[in-house]
UniProtKB/TrEMBL annotation:
Full protein name: Ferredoxin
Alphabetical list of InterPro entries matching this protein: Fe-S_cluster_ET
Keyword Electron transport: yes
Region (Disordered): 67-98
Family annotation (Pfam families): Fer4_15
Any GO molecular function: 3 iron, 4 sulfur cluster binding
Keywords noted in UniProt: 3Fe-4S, Electron transport, Iron, Iron-sulfur, Metal-binding, Transport
Cofactor: [3Fe-4S] cluster
């Protein structure tokens, strides 16, 4: 895992240094600085993710390759488009509830 800190967004809440003091330090005004090059050891991943998720201004971002599910293949003439509609019968499949 690799992270980046945008100091121009940081508002000095200090939450990052509280959760992951080995990766973030605070200057005299309380603004965060990244310690090191942003590489996070696997053992520290949870603490750094907590800092990332708890940052109120989202100044910390995770760098790297995201994996997305493969897109559905396009419809052919033989496919029925009504099979892919979201209906009450298949609401659990689509993840919506009333």
């Amino acid at each position: 895992m690799k992270i980046r800190l945008d100091r121009t967004i940081c508002d000095g809440f200090g939450v990052c240094a509280k959760h992951a003091p080995g990766y973030f330090s605070l200057d005299d005004w309380g603004y965060a600085s990244l310690i090191g090059d942003g590489s996070v050891a696997e053992a520290d991943r949870d603490a750094v993710m907590r800092a990332l998720l708890d940052c109120p201004v989202h100044a910390i971002t995770e760098l790297g390759e995201r994996r997305f599910p493969a897109p559905e293949p396009p419809l052919t003439d033989a496919d029925d488009p009504a099979e892919r509609l979201k209906t009450e019968d298949n609401e659990a499949e689509w993840g919506f509830t009333r």
